[in-house]
């Protein structure tokens, strides 16, 4: 399913982060709820496990849960590993990774919201799942993928300060509290369906949604996650031509396909990891991560890290 993208003018925050709005030519998906806060999320009734949760839809419409969504509470905070559309009245077991290594106690219920896992954490999880291939697509998160998520969180804390329980959500909240900027935040534009993220002059990641409502529901989380990655980078604006060239590159990638598992493929930027979730009526959500970008690369590859 080919997706064609059009890139708008970027918004630069003056501190290394540039956000580019993206529009798609394909029709929007309608009739779905995109707010993860409207889903009921809890531990397995048979007994809590690190890498699985139960999601229930008690609403009146199909609800969308997306790769990268954070769920707070339960025995520990988790991040969803892949996208799902949960039908009305459906209860489904889903694969998750732990993003709070230091806690294993609490209630059974989780709170969902607009928060998204940082792009470094998501890149690590997606890249490991891509190496494992389709045979692991619907299984629980493997030890290798979970270990990579924890390692990425430790790297975040090394760069920006530790938090109790190694909680990614606490790290994001800490960043939100101390980060100040005189530059206005980028806003979702009419008809906008995606975003390309430039950090320190280079394209880092991109996300695309089946509707403007889907993007809007995750917008605050996208900005917070991107700002976190840009906290300690040179104040370099990413040029518009880089985003436009990247949009052309995307048209040669399986963005818009329903991938059973993420893939890693080569691009003019270098290796990129792609996660794409679609149904017969169109794209639900896709994410593309530039594995060569210094803030997303494997340990030891970031020239801005001490």
List the helices and strands and how they pair.
Layout: E1 5-7, E2 11-12, E3 17-24, E4 40-42, E5 52-56, E6 63-65, E7 69-73, E8 78-80, E9 84-86, E10 91-98, E11 109-116, H1 119-132, H2 143-160, H3 168-178, E12 194-199, E13 202-209, H4 212-229, H5 240-250, E14 263-267, E15 270-279, E16 282-290
Antiparallel strand pairs: 1-3, 2-3, 3-12, 4-5, 4-11, 5-10, 6-9, 7-8, 7-11, 8-10, 12-13, 13-16, 14-15, 15-16
What labels describe this entry?
5 helices; 8-stranded antiparallel beta sheet; 306 residues; globular; single chain; alpha+beta
Q: How would you describe this protein?
A:
The protein has 306 residues and is an alpha+beta fold. The chain has one domain. Helix content is 24%, strand content 29%. The chain has helices at 119-132, 143-160, 168-178, 212-229, 240-250, and strands at 5-7, 11-12, 17-24, 40-42, 52-56, 63-65, 69-73, 78-80, 84-86, 91-98, 109-116, 194-199, 202-209, 263-267, 270-279, 282-290. The strands form three sheets. Strands 1, 2, 3, 12, 13, 14, 15 and 16 form an eight-stranded antiparallel β-sheet that branches. Strand 2 (11-12) and strand 3 form a beta hairpin. Helix 1 (119-132) runs antiparallel to helix 2 (143-160). It starts with a strand and ends in a 16-residue tail after the last strand. The model has no long low-confidence stretch (mean pLDDT 89).
Describe the structure concisely.
This protein is an alpha+beta fold and 306 residues long. The chain is built from five helices and 16 strands. The radius of gyration is 18 Å and the shape is globular.
